[in-house]
Protein backbone atom coordinates (compact mmCIF):
# COMPACT_ATOMS: atom_id res chain seq x y z
CA UNK A 1 0.00 0.00 0.00
CA UNK A 2 1.78 3.12 -1.27
CA UNK A 3 1.14 6.38 0.59
CA UNK A 4 -0.55 9.08 -1.44
CA UNK A 5 1.60 11.79 -3.01
CA UNK A 6 0.05 14.36 -0.66
CA UNK A 7 0.81 12.21 2.40
CA UNK A 8 4.40 11.71 1.24
CA UNK A 9 4.83 15.47 0.80
CA UNK A 10 3.68 16.08 4.37
CA UNK A 11 5.52 13.16 6.00
CA UNK A 12 8.77 13.03 4.02
CA UNK A 13 11.36 15.39 5.50
CA UNK A 14 13.25 18.00 3.60
CA UNK A 15 16.92 17.48 4.35
CA UNK A 16 18.84 20.72 4.71
CA UNK A 17 22.40 19.54 5.17
CA UNK A 18 24.32 16.56 3.75
CA UNK A 19 25.64 15.46 7.16
CA UNK A 20 22.05 15.02 8.41
CA UNK A 21 21.00 13.07 5.31
CA UNK A 22 19.87 9.47 5.66
CA UNK A 23 21.26 6.80 3.39
CA UNK A 24 18.95 5.90 0.50
CA UNK A 25 17.65 2.66 2.03
CA UNK A 26 16.99 4.11 5.48
CA UNK A 27 15.19 7.04 3.86
CA UNK A 28 13.00 4.62 1.87
CA UNK A 29 12.40 2.42 4.93
CA UNK A 30 11.24 5.40 6.98
CA UNK A 31 9.29 7.41 4.38
CA UNK A 32 8.13 5.01 1.68
CA UNK A 33 7.16 2.13 3.94
CA UNK A 34 3.55 0.90 4.09
CA UNK A 35 4.17 0.51 7.86
CA UNK A 36 5.74 3.95 8.26
CA UNK A 37 4.60 4.58 11.83
CA UNK A 38 6.12 1.31 13.08
CA UNK A 39 9.30 1.88 11.06
CA UNK A 40 9.82 5.40 12.43
CA UNK A 41 8.86 4.34 15.95
CA UNK A 42 11.38 1.47 15.86
CA UNK A 43 14.06 3.71 14.33
CA UNK A 44 13.68 6.19 17.19
CA UNK A 45 13.59 3.44 19.81
CA UNK A 46 16.84 1.96 18.48
CA UNK A 47 18.51 5.38 18.42
CA UNK A 48 17.49 5.79 22.05
CA UNK A 49 18.05 2.30 23.43
CA UNK A 50 21.30 1.23 21.79
CA UNK A 51 23.54 4.03 23.04
CA UNK A 52 21.98 4.15 26.49
CA UNK A 53 22.02 0.44 27.23
CA UNK A 54 25.52 0.18 25.75
CA UNK A 55 26.60 2.90 28.17
CA UNK A 56 24.82 1.15 31.08
CA UNK A 57 26.68 -2.07 30.33
CA UNK A 58 30.01 -0.31 29.98
CA UNK A 59 29.61 1.99 32.99
CA UNK A 60 27.86 -0.29 35.46
CA UNK A 61 28.32 -3.80 34.06
CA UNK A 62 24.55 -4.28 33.87
CA UNK A 63 22.61 -5.97 31.10
CA UNK A 64 19.59 -4.29 29.60
CA UNK A 65 17.27 -6.63 31.52
CA UNK A 66 19.03 -5.81 34.79
CA UNK A 67 18.73 -2.08 34.23
CA UNK A 68 15.09 -2.42 33.13
CA UNK A 69 14.37 -3.94 36.54
CA UNK A 70 16.07 -1.03 38.32
CA UNK A 71 14.27 1.46 36.09
CA UNK A 72 10.93 -0.29 36.69
CA UNK A 73 11.44 -0.22 40.46
CA UNK A 74 12.36 3.45 40.20
CA UNK A 75 8.93 4.04 38.66
CA UNK A 76 7.06 1.83 41.12
CA UNK A 77 8.78 0.09 43.99
CA UNK A 78 7.36 -3.20 45.21
CA UNK A 79 6.36 -4.79 41.90
CA UNK A 80 7.20 -8.41 41.12
CA UNK A 81 9.41 -9.78 38.37
CA UNK A 82 6.25 -11.20 36.76
CA UNK A 83 4.70 -7.74 36.65
CA UNK A 84 7.86 -6.31 35.11
CA UNK A 85 7.89 -9.14 32.55
CA UNK A 86 4.28 -8.44 31.63
CA UNK A 87 4.92 -4.71 31.24
CA UNK A 88 8.24 -4.92 29.37
CA UNK A 89 7.82 -8.12 27.31
CA UNK A 90 11.09 -9.52 28.68
CA UNK A 91 10.84 -13.28 29.27
CA UNK A 92 10.21 -14.21 32.91
CA UNK A 93 13.29 -16.46 33.05
CA UNK A 94 15.51 -13.62 31.78
CA UNK A 95 14.19 -11.30 34.48
CA UNK A 96 14.44 -13.98 37.14
CA UNK A 97 18.16 -14.39 36.40
CA UNK A 98 18.57 -10.61 36.32
CA UNK A 99 16.85 -10.23 39.71
CA UNK A 100 19.23 -12.83 41.16
CA UNK A 101 22.27 -10.98 39.83
CA UNK A 102 20.96 -7.62 41.06
CA UNK A 103 20.37 -9.17 44.48
CA UNK A 104 23.94 -10.47 44.62
CA UNK A 105 25.22 -6.98 43.75
CA UNK A 106 23.12 -5.46 46.51
CA UNK A 107 21.00 -3.34 44.16
CA UNK A 108 17.63 -5.05 44.67
CA UNK A 109 16.01 -6.73 47.63
CA UNK A 110 13.11 -9.18 47.71
CA UNK A 111 10.15 -8.89 50.02
CA UNK A 112 7.35 -11.25 50.93
CA UNK A 113 3.72 -10.89 49.90
CA UNK A 114 1.36 -11.54 52.81
CA UNK A 115 -1.34 -13.01 50.55
CA UNK A 116 0.76 -14.94 47.99
CA UNK A 117 3.91 -16.66 49.23
CA UNK A 118 5.13 -17.17 45.64
CA UNK A 119 5.03 -13.45 44.86
CA UNK A 120 8.14 -11.58 45.88
CA UNK A 121 7.83 -7.81 45.66
CA UNK A 122 11.13 -6.25 44.62
CA UNK A 123 12.62 -3.15 46.17
CA UNK A 124 15.56 -0.95 45.29
CA UNK A 125 18.27 -0.89 47.91
CA UNK A 126 20.03 2.39 48.63
CA UNK A 127 22.81 1.31 46.24
CA UNK A 128 20.17 0.61 43.57
CA UNK A 129 18.56 4.03 44.10
CA UNK A 130 21.98 5.71 43.92
CA UNK A 131 22.88 3.93 40.66
CA UNK A 132 19.52 4.83 39.13
CA UNK A 133 19.84 8.47 40.22
CA UNK A 134 23.27 8.63 38.59
CA UNK A 135 22.11 7.04 35.32
CA UNK A 136 18.75 8.75 34.77
CA UNK A 137 20.04 12.19 33.72
CA UNK A 138 21.59 10.59 30.63
CA UNK A 139 18.27 8.95 29.69
CA UNK A 140 16.40 12.21 30.22
CA UNK A 141 18.96 14.21 28.24
CA UNK A 142 18.75 11.91 25.21
CA UNK A 143 14.96 12.08 25.24
CA UNK A 144 15.17 15.86 25.46
CA UNK A 145 17.60 15.90 22.54
CA UNK A 146 15.27 13.74 20.46
CA UNK A 147 12.30 16.01 21.22
CA UNK A 148 14.21 19.25 20.65
CA UNK A 149 12.72 19.89 17.17
CA UNK A 150 9.23 20.02 18.71
CA UNK A 151 7.59 22.95 20.41
CA UNK A 152 6.04 22.43 23.84
CA UNK A 153 2.59 22.19 22.24
CA UNK A 154 3.85 19.63 19.69
CA UNK A 155 5.42 17.59 22.49
CA UNK A 156 2.11 17.54 24.35
CA UNK A 157 0.28 16.57 21.16
CA UNK A 158 2.76 13.79 20.46
CA UNK A 159 2.42 12.50 24.02
CA UNK A 160 -1.37 12.52 23.79
CA UNK A 161 -1.36 10.79 20.40
CA UNK A 162 1.09 8.11 21.57
CA UNK A 163 -1.06 7.53 24.66
CA UNK A 164 -4.11 7.17 22.43
CA UNK A 165 -2.35 4.56 20.27
CA UNK A 166 -1.19 2.62 23.35
CA UNK A 167 -4.59 2.72 25.02
CA UNK A 168 -6.24 1.73 21.75
CA UNK A 169 -4.29 -1.53 21.83
CA UNK A 170 -5.94 -2.41 25.15
CA UNK A 171 -9.41 -1.50 23.91
CA UNK A 172 -8.91 -3.72 20.85
CA UNK A 173 -7.99 -6.64 23.08
CA UNK A 174 -4.37 -6.74 21.83
CA UNK A 175 -2.08 -6.29 24.83
CA UNK A 176 1.03 -7.18 22.86
CA UNK A 177 1.37 -10.61 24.48
TrEMBL record:
Pfam family, one: MarR_2
UniProt keyword terms in alphabetical order: DNA-binding, Transcription, Transcription regulation
HTH marR-type domain segment(s): 38-167
InterPro entries assigned to the protein according to its UniProt record, in alphabetical order: HTH_MarR-typ (IPR000835), WH-like_DNA-bd_sf (IPR036388), WH_DNA-bd_sf (IPR036390)
Keyword Transcription found: yes
Signal peptide positions on this chain: none
Molecular function GO labels: DNA binding; DNA-binding transcription factor activity
SUPFAM superfamilies on file: Winged helix' DNA-binding domain
PANTHER family registered for this protein in UniProt: TRANSCRIPTIONAL REGULATOR, MARR (PTHR42756), TRANSCRIPTIONAL REPRESSOR OF EMRAB OPERON (PTHR42756:SF1)
Name of the protein described by the UniProt record: Winged helix-turn-helix transcriptional regulator
Amino acid sequence: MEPTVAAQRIAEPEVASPERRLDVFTHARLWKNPCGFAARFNYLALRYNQPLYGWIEERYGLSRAEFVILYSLGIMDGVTASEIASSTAFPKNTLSRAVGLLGKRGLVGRGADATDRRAQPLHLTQAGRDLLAEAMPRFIALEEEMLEPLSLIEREQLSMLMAKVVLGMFHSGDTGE
